[in-house]
Amino acid sequence: MGVPLNELLAGNQHYAEGFTQGELALPPASKVAAVVCMDARIDPLPALGLHLGDAHVIRNAGGRVTDDALRSLAISERLLGTDAVLVIHHTDCGMLTFSNEQIREKIHAELGDTAYQVAEHTDFLPFGDLAQSVRDDVAAVKASPLIPNTIAVYGLIYDVHTGKLSQVE
Amino acid sequence: MGVPLNELLAGNQHYAEGFTQGELALPPASKVAAVVCMDARIDPLPALGLHLGDAHVIRNAGGRVTDDALRSLAISERLLGTDAVLVIHHTDCGMLTFSNEQIREKIHAELGDTAYQVAEHTDFLPFGDLAQSVRDDVAAVKASPLIPNTIAVYGLIYDVHTGKLSQVE
Fold it and tell me: What span, in angstroms and rounded, lies between the C-alpha atoms of B141 and B149?
């Protein structure tokens, strides 16, 4: 791999030597749970002016509100007291650049028939319109029976070139 | 909510004013994709000695290797060139403290019958043994037809009290 495991563990050793936040409470201090794309160019906590211990961070390809994200949000809210959800997608997202058919064909070509059989039944959740994808995912949170309407839900777009968040109405 | 949206946006305004990393490449520089628990006390990038632009970060309740995490990993590897997966669970995890039955009953009591009907068919993926949960999820990555055996997969436990990572064999 690009960075070998022993280098990552050495980086962690350095981090642990300077670590002073060992007594943080389990429930997030800000009561926020953020659903964010996995993109490498986003570090959600500092981008929201938050710190270690402040927020649950749920991330996947696209920052999509999947059943698994709803599972995580339900645990966050019912067991750990969060009461606001941020859905954060971003500019220049890889999810804007392919279709289900394209990634399935790529998987078929690179990984073979068995992988293709799984890929055929997988929705990779790409999208064509960034603001609309945020609106769709905000709507998916609000529509879930697992998320009561006492939970505030906001949609945001993060600009990877400026670090700036803007709200999607 | 604990921290209102305008305060988060003000925090972001401050972040954006100091933002200097606007020209990072889309593919993660370290070629690492990390599957990590959503816990508020973990900030995966600095904990791995990594920086903005270095790694895909996939997070959910428990850091479990769900179908959605595998969707994200497949996109990360096929389209953006990552070739190593880290599965990172952690000490003092909320997932060690409840059963499916308990959270379903809590959802029933707090949110009613419709929510319960969804919860009944949701596996919230709690676990009773931390190291075993890491091994199980490493095995789930390796078992997926979407993840070829050219991908390195490592399991780790993060200690929220010391900031230290240790490998699970």
Answer: 10
